[in-house]
Amino acid sequence: FGRRKIPSKKIVLVGGCFDLLHYGHLTFLRNAKKSGDFLLVALESDEFIKKYKKRDPIHLQEQRAEILTSLSYVDAVVKLPLFKSDKEYFNLVRMIKPSVIAVTEGDTQLKNKKKQAKMVGARIKVVSSLVKNLSSKEIIKKFL
Asked: What mean pLDDT is predicted for residues 51-74?
């Protein structure tokens, strides 16, 4: 899903749910784009949100993909199925061969992402810090 063909330029890969798009997401995506020529978002599935975030998604994956591709700094979105193992993420990174894997400070998957980066000769770049009290979960809580 996306507007443009993946070029043979410096690809920056990011991943996440991006369910309720907020300022922290925008900062992360904008800074990630500055790390290369082509920003590719690996977008988690609705099932991922249900299983790991323990809630129903606010926006369906298709809607989240459309929202993300409307941003000027997002070049393409890959809609992921619910991966059953880390091996599937490694295979995805092997296929994409990014130059940079952009992360937020304190990324819970940093250890795996470092291994993935090493596998394809990419580098890990911390492009933003977590914005306190600004997550989809916190925003949802405010409306309950």
From this structure: 95
